[in-house]
Amino acid sequence: xxxxxxxxxxxxxxxxxxxxxxxxxxxxxxxxxxxxxxxxxxxxxxxxxxxxxxxxxxxxxxxxxxxxxxxxxxxxxxxxxxxxxxxxxxxxxxxxxxxxxxxxxxxxxxxxxxxxxxxxxxxxxxxxxxxxxxxxxxxxxxxxxxxxxxxxxxxxxxxxxxxxxxxxxxxxxxxxxxxxxxxxxxxxxxxxxxxxxxxxxxxxxxxxxxxxxxxxxxxxxxxxxxxxxxxxxxxxxxxxxxxxxxxxxxxxxxxxxxxxxxxxxxxxxxxxxxxxxxxxxxxxxxxxxxxxxxxxxxxxxxxxxxxxxxxxxxxxxxxxxxxxxxxxxxxxxxxxxxxxxxxxxxxxxxxxxxxxxxxxxxxxxxxxxxxxxxxxxxxxxxxxxxxxxxxxxxxxxxxxxxxxxxxxxxxxxxxxxxxxxxxxxxxxxxxxxxxxxxxxxxxxxxxxxxxxxxxxxxxxxxxxxxxxxxxxxxxxxxxxxxxxxxxxxxxxxxxxxxxxx
Length: 501
Ligand code: NAD
Known about the structure:
- This protein has 501 residues and is α/β, with parallel strands linked by helices.
- The chain has 14 helices and 23 strands.
- The protein has a seven-stranded mixed β-sheet, with helices on both faces. The protein has a five-stranded parallel β-sheet with strand order 7-6-5-8-9, sandwiched between helices.
- Strand 18, helix 14 and strand 19 form a beta-alpha-beta unit.
- Bound molecules: nicotinamide-adenine-dinucleotide.
């Protein structure tokens, strides 16, 4: 067994899950490319069996009072606190995130559990004034049914928890198909969740895991007993999933690709902006849905900003995410690296000039792993390559002369996830966050576009899919609304004054 494989065994043992070393499919770590586990994938039959068991569990879970359901999520949060170090390290080994981000990912799971436990006592409906005397109108929120969660490799466990913590307190079973590039963290998380479900006395089959790629995802998407598909991943995936779910009148919640920008106004605090930009653009090796991919900078400060960024990029430690001090880890696999190279070739053809980075590094030490330098490219305008999401650390720099032009450039991409403006001009800040400003689901002022808190609703518009997860009233996506009119009078007045007989 390889060194990292042995480490995985140790971490699984600490978590109390059987080590994943039997199965037909190899699991590799992006840190070295070495094999770290073996697993078996599911097939259409096992998808059907898991969904059926979850559907069966729904009847009992739906009738369990919501605050009692909250105890399961409380227990999940408690166990995640206990296993934060082990699970965080697994995230680093399997997804290539630096240690602090691996731990941060598990912290995000703990945070959403805290939010969901409180929510389990606050699933409030409205009481509405009725036009009829002796009548009361109200809304109730009822459990929806089986929630199918499809997740991406780059937030291998947090995305499941955003969905699962809310779906469970809302009264729904959860069947999860994680990314085929992040199965081990999913298996460890599933073991923790299963333990929490047992302690809470939840019905069998309430929480299920399916391993596999697109075929297994499709079987889940098409299953008539899955009430909601919550799918996180590329816009390509969303385009395939949405019509299939719609064809059977299921519900879907999509969290798809982003092409996030920051506007740098002449009044920006550049010291603060540079720190925010470097974290948002180079952190997680550019593999966050909210990664900063475009800077739209006022011409008067463009040279200064680009110089400062290039200097900062030159000092970023690239290497194993497990090493102390590393800030930039590997890309997930060869395909991601090919995408990085292709985007840089296209950028050069479209008039771009690479001003920092651009190279693969550590190739001699790790021929099967893909480490690249975070890269800055000055572009003559918003060309085709700038309008697409390349899931790698490439930051395009565009220049503008007036704020309206900056906003137009900002919104002129198909995606609409996250955005920010760096300015100390109150008017610009307010315009950016107004309806006439950023068209994204997230619009920040004087912080970068990445690194959201769970208290706010998370998601974006346009090709990002329109879904919202996490805080605010995102829980409503996991419930169905019933409007009730109760007549406590002895008459039967009809609405709109209609007389009948
Ligand atoms: P991906 O689209 O390749 O895969 C995502 C998931 O979808 C995987 O589990 C995959 O097996 C599954 N899948 C793919 N095609 C499917 C199909 N036709 N039917 C059913 N399931 C299918 O994405 P990825 O490479 O894992 O992740 C990177 C992408 O995810 C980026 O575009 C990123 O922006 C996006 N992302 C978005 C958010 C968000 O909240 N908006 C969060 C994380 C990642």
